[in-house]
Amino acid sequence: MDEMAFFNFSLEDYDFNSSDFLSFLPILNNTFDIPENDRLPEELPDKLKTIITVLYSIIIAGAFLGNSVVICVILANSAMRNVTNVFLISLAISDILIAVWNMPLMLMYHLSSEWTHGEPLCKTISFMTSVTVFASIVTLTAVSTERYYAVCHPLKARYIRTNKRAAIALVIIWTVAIAVSLPFTWLQRVELRLALTPDADVGIRIAELCAEKYPNATLDHLHTYIIFVFWYIVPMAIMFFTYGSIAHRLWMRKPIGDAQESPQNIDKLKRKIIKMLIIIVLVFGICWLPFFAIQIYRLHNSATYGYRIALTIIQLIGYSNSMMNPLIYGFMNQRFQQSLKAMFRKCKHVSAFGKNNGTLHNGHTINSITVESAV
User: Fold this and answer.
1) How wide is the angle at C-alpha 327 spanned by C-alphas 324 and 328, nearest 5°?
2) Using CA atoms, how far apart are residues 95 and 62, in angstroms rounded to an integer?
3) How confident is the model at residue 5 (pLDDT cuts 50, 70, 90)?
4) For residue 157, pLDDT beyond 90
5) Helices 263-300, 234-252: crossing angle, 10 deg rounding
6) Per-residue pLDDT tens for 205-251?
7) Burial 144-160 (b: 16+ CB within 10 A, else e)
8) What are the Cα distances from residue 20, in Å, to 5, 198, 202?
9) Which of 126, 145, 330, 360 suits a disulfide with 326, CB 3.0-4.6 Å?
10) How large a percentage of the chain has pLDDT more than 90?
11) pLDDT score recorded for residue 1
12) Which residues span the membrane (predicted)?
């Protein structure tokens, strides 16, 4: 029997009650091969849709503008084209792709609660999301490692920290990101799902959903835990070690250069740097831990309406990392601020006489090279 012909009827012609629906459900499941507990999520409340739309719009605009400014500032100032900023350009590109490609499609998906763009785009958005998120996470890890060598092993850093090696590392990062994302194009597909209407009398509808479809539960569990370990646990552990080592080295290092600098100001500068390093780790952890946690929760619990709302909010939190990155790595860095002001002055055709000595605080240095490398 042709499936579409079978479903070519109007639900208005039928008066379903709960018992009718329960008896009719197995027929629909067998006909459309839809698991009983795998139905289309209920639509979000209108008020929540409005809030989600506003928040998505803010994050999309902030991520696009912030990361675009980071790229422009680095490219416009030859002094900014160092190893760290090579990685930051890659990070900004991946975050821009997330903002202009992934987030708008996910927003439309959340607002409609179903997929209306066909299977090719379903596979593409899954692939692109995986590539950009993986590249962003690994680049953040690479930045922390590069800074670790610059501060804690400066002799080795002279050999390791070169623009050529950074470019090679980025090629490897994006190649691996593409490779590990290919399984998502195989797993992701458009499926028919059942949905319950919110009316008092139980009704049904069938719509399309873009979702991962694993051959069996074991593969689903294995794939999810592998992603959690290598996309979150390992990067988080590396950042803890590298930035923790940098903070310890900065705190223990004695000041040089300005003998008149007071110990209070030196300690204040150290605390400022260490605070920034802590913020870097916390922002990454807070933005992405809920996302991976809810993926593990999904393995052991049935999807509910509460899960649907939680997933929508948690995905938004994860995407917000793309807006936070340029704020942390760019706008909180004084050298970046100086370069940004210089770029604006050039745009206004005004001569720039500002100082740019590469330190975090004019006239107050622990070690200008160390500070610049740390932040």
Assistant:
1) 85
2) 11
3) very low
4) no
5) 170
6) 667 788 888 888 899 899 899 999 999 999 999 999 999 998 888 88
7) bbbbbbbbbeeeebeeb
8) 21, 16, 9
9) 330
10) 28
11) 46
12) 51-76, 83-104, 124-145, 166-186, 222-244, 276-297, 309-331
Q: Find residue 192's DSSP bridge partners.
A: 208
In whole angstroms, what is the distance from residue 326 CA to residue 71 CA?
10
Beta bridge partners of 189: 211
Looking up tokens 């501060």 gives: 151
Q: Are 269 and 364 in contact (CB under 8 A)?
A: yes
**CB contact at 8 A, 326 and 67:** yes
Within 10 A of 137 (CB to CB), how many other CB atoms are there? 23
Q: Against a cut of 0.85, is the pTM above it?
A: no
Type of residue at 200: A
CA 279 to mean position of chain CA atoms: 16
CATH architecture of residue range(s) 34-374: Up-down Bundle (1.20)
Provide φ and ψ at 91, rounded to 5°.
Answer: -60, -40
pLDDT score, position 17: 44
Helix axes 334-347, 46-76, angle to 10 degrees: 80
Residue type, 356: N
Summarize the confidence of residues 160-174 as an average pLDDT.
90
CB neighbours of residue 363 within 10 Å: 12
Q: Are 142 and 87 a contacting pair, CB within 8 Å?
A: yes
CB 322 within 8 A of CB 99: yes
Domain residue spans of the chain: 34-374
Instruction: Looking at mean pLDDT, say which of 12-26, 71-85, 173-187, 240-254 comes out highest.
Output: 173-187
Residue owning tokens 């030859």: 78
Q: 66: buried, middle or exposed (CB in 10 Å: 19+, 13-18, 0-12)? A: buried
